[in-house]
């Protein structure tokens, strides 16, 4: 009886936890005089790292907490990447790419302006707030 109760409790706990759908977000900037591309990558497990065309390899930056990951997941839904498509690069451009279920959705716009999609701007602002100041 006790084993059954423990097993049922474990099953209820596991099934009541909603897990995040696997995703990867790449965001950053590119262009300018040197045409440097700086990319930050956030994976669904919360790992955040940086790559740049000006140095080899990747640099681990932080691990994002579950509360922020859930907020990001809600913002991803709000953006509706399947329906959003911004392709307005400038001399310096911001970009944000969502990869999920084998599909990549990329949006690029001039860094000195809004993307024209408030939810996309909000998501990029949230992501940028997670990047440590000291890198």
CATH topology: Mago nashi protein
DSSP helix fraction: 25-40%
User: What is the tally of beta strands?
Assistant: 7
- Which regions are unreliable across 5 or more consecutive residues at pLDDT < 50? 4-19
Global structural class: alpha+beta
CATH class: Alpha Beta
What is the CATH homology-level superfamily?
A: Mago nashi
| Helix-strand pattern | HEEEEHEEEH
Number of domains: 1
Provide a brief overview of the structure.
This protein has 135 residues and is of the alpha+beta class. It has helices at residues 2-16, 66-79, 118-130, and strands spanning 24-31, 36-43, 47-52, 55-63, 87-88, 92-100, 103-110.
List strands and helices in order, with pairings:
Elements: H1 2-16, E1 24-31, E2 36-43, E3 47-52, E4 55-63, H2 66-79, E5 87-88, E6 92-100, E7 103-110, H3 118-130
Parallel strand pairs: 5-7
Antiparallel strand pairs: 1-2, 1-6, 2-3, 3-4, 6-7
Helix pairs in contact: 2-3
